[in-house]
Amino acid sequence: MAALGVVLAAAGACAVVPTSGSPRVAEEDNSRDTLSQPYVRMIATKPRPDATPVDIVKGFQAAMASFDDPSLAVARQYLDPSVEDKWDPWRQTTVYESKLPPEGVPVDELKDAKETTVTLRGTAVATIDAEGRYTPASGPVVQSFALARVGNQWRIDAPPDARLLSADDLKRDYRQVDLYYPPATSATGLVVDRVWVPINPSTGIPETLVRRLLAGPTKSIRDSVRSAFPSGTGLNQITVEGDTVVVDFTSEVESVADDRIDAMKAQLAWTLGDLVTGRTIEIRVDGEPFRGTGLRFSPRDTSQFDPNVLPAQPQAYYMQDGKLQRVKEKGGEAVGGAAGEQGTKFTSPAVSAESPPRVAALVGGEGVWVATTVVGSQWQRWIPGRKDTLTPPSWDRYGAVWSAEWYGGKQTRVWQAQEGQPHRVGLPADLETRRILALRVSRDGARVAMIVQEGRGESLEIGTIARIGQEAQIENVQKLDSRSNQDIVDIAWQDAASLLVLSQGKGGQELSTWSVMEGMEVPDAAIKLDAQAEIGSIVGAPPDYVLASADYDGEIRTYNVDKKAWVALAKDGATDPVYPLG
């Protein structure tokens, strides 16, 4: 695609070339074909003759940001030939704030020198590992480069096995994407795995996504999923024929088991996402129809694999007068069965996603009980224990109820129960000795979010769930947020990848949204609360539904995204807002 202009990069070692239209900053153009969205390209330029050590390091830094050069061949020209092939820039990417000004010995002092050092100093933003996992970072970046004369030219002879990119480079050259994999169980569904991938202009975004999907899930979720694509499957190309996106794989794809074809289609459709909206997808094998007869489908046909489980307009519930109420257009109505009656006192209800749904709750002081929402149903105890030692229940998409128990005042036990049969969940040793104050299973059933007591404070931690049959293990527990000056009041899953966090500090309450796989707060996503809001609990549902209970006046509120304001949904002693799962 011809470029209409070229703007020289400030570093002097790259040219910025828009892939379409006039020169501009990188931004999506929704009026164009979604398979060929424009973005700014950074074209690396080789070292200038007689470049100073500072110029060499600046040029190398700029050339590392060029993804028109996928092998970074131009960046390697800034290195001593003896280390060109040893340099491994793919091991890690360090992201820093806008500039890393170089510091080196003045040129007039290098006339007879054979070696020198140039140092870059700045502030860290994040790191991205070889799998594309993003981890926030802070503190100084101090990177020294040793240079030596090669003939009459300065070259870097000790490069770090990493790339250094500015935050602007990251926005231009990387995409935050969600990959999708079926769970390791036989259940229908998909699990989200969020990564950052570098865009290669020679292949484009769709091919980049599918090749990364075929490379497999990240370590953090690997024990929880199993790709439907047969091992060794490769991608030949992606083309567009009319309204059909043709994805051409290598022959290994034909060995997929018949009962895994639907899951394979879902992986492909959900990973391509908006890029294939309104189109048909066709899978081919080395240019020929799949298994001789062809395989064409609409992305809409894979909706049953939705990792968020819930419909577009999920049903909301709340407690009032000791009964669980279903939100209606005007007011509410009690659900059927024991949860809709006043006979037995219960608290902290959770609702499953099945039809008809079931309700789990803390009943009396005798554990977690479950009742269906069918008229005449009764409570059945699924997890024994005392109310003051168990966390409020949380449903997963497989029909199991979860709760954490503080046992004997010194040990944490986590339970999952299905059809009245509780099973102990395996925990990392350090988690067994800390009290879990709240536990919520993600909608895709692959993660847990936990508020954990930590000395005098609290921490927000995320773990992945590995499953074998009915047994489960919480692994890869990572701290998402530690609050030294705020209490964490409540947590709730917004969708399979995002968590709502309600906290209380000296300045009042705050409701923020966190990307759990990146370990960072989502910018500009916070819902503003009145400093004296006194919100007691929250629940969320995709894409942006939020309910909150106002403890001081017995009111349930819903957040209007368009008006950016809270609206009363139920009053007169309404408490405990609920969306299914999460």
UniProtKB/TrEMBL annotation:
InterPro entries: GerMN (IPR019606), LpqB_C (IPR018910), LpqB_N (IPR059026), WD40/YVTN_repeat-like_dom_sf (IPR015943). Residues 1-15 form the signal peptide. It comes from the Bacteria. SMART domains: Germane. The keyword Lipoprotein applies. Keywords: Lipoprotein, Signal. Residues 206-294 form the GerMN domain. The keyword Translocase does not apply. Pfam families: Germane, Gmad1, LpqB_N. This is Lipoprotein LpqB. It comes from Planotetraspora thailandica.
